[in-house]
Amino acid sequence: MSWFSTLEQAPPIEVFDLLKQYPNDDFPQKVNLSAGAYRTNEEKPWVLPVVRTAETALLNDEKVNKEYLPILGFEAFSKLATRILLGDDSVALAENRAFGVQCLSGTGSLRVGAEFLATKLGKTVFYYSNPTWGNHRLVFLNAGFKDAREYRYWDAENRSLDLNGLLEDLNNAPEGAVIILHACAHNPTGCDPTQDQWREVARVIKEKKLFPFFDSAYQGFATGDLDKDAWAVRFFVKEGLELLCGQSFAKNFGLYNERVGNLSIVLNNPEKIPAVKSQITLIVRGMYSNPPAHGARIVHYVLSNNELYDQWRDNIKTMSSRIKEMRQKLREELERIGAPGSWNHVTDQIGMFSYTGLNAAQSQHLVKKYHVYMLSTGRISMCGLTPSNVEYVAKCIKETLT
Ligand code: PMP
Question: Among residues 37, 127, 239, 310, which is most buried (max CB within 10 A)?
Fold first, then answer.
């Protein structure tokens, strides 16, 4: 007899499954376009120079110890993280009605925020874009939400935003529903609303009394500029909307595995902040008690030093520019060799990913036959492309389509 005998096998998580297979594949020309992690032109992971500088300083600082952080994390880090999101001139910050809680990267910030909304504010319904990052649904359902719904986002035929569909779905959402919005560099489509389109989204959210929950996993990665990439969140705040925003420092600091994140909360009544903090304290205490310090110390070190802050922005530019160059190269190569279809979407899209338009069978064919690892939704990470593999990838895409 075993208590586990009725347990069924859960499905694998596609992206982690591919990451596991990749190192064991001995095909010489294999290419990894599945992971959402930056790579250099030499296909190597990159520890940002500012991160090295901060780590060296922290290592030599005898005051740094391994004691517990408070339950809500390293407050000085959270203050700076919320500030880069909302901007130095934020009215909400000036009015002391915005604050942050250090959480376990972007995922943990979403999870803590979602559990707060579900268990403390009684929210049950949430909406995510179709398509969205593969984890939103699971994170929100695990956090206690009951009703997962989609809003239209991607117009596959025109490879662009389905604004009318999006607005119609939000218009029909029940009052109080939580709407997950990608702050920038939408994953997986690489297609963001324009500023005018965001204005319309905000208008419906306000009119229909919906609750915006931004997911900001790529600030700096979309345009290379931290302020531009935070425009939508800042606009919603200016419009007087209350909101939550989960911030990840995995991508823009290259701190994937350090799990550095921040849940920013903007509310209208600052008097309620102690109550919100006390409730989130109970959530975190019962989940993981308190977050790890190392990554948050690195980010804090950089953000609180003007010179390093400027260097960090240069590091972000290095990453976002390489991605843009690879978009250009891939498109040029696909067009040069005459791969069927149009490829302007590759350069129109922004951020880390491109939604190629390849279907599941074609994507799996690229993995199996050509050892080009990508998701079955047709999503490729631009970071895995380099000057030495882009021609091979373009050739494989062409052969798959012809
Ligand atoms: N949201 C989106 C849209 C993402 O793409 C990711 C990372 N792939 C995350 C959140 C969370 O990432 P992490 O937990 O590693 O910060």
Answer: 127
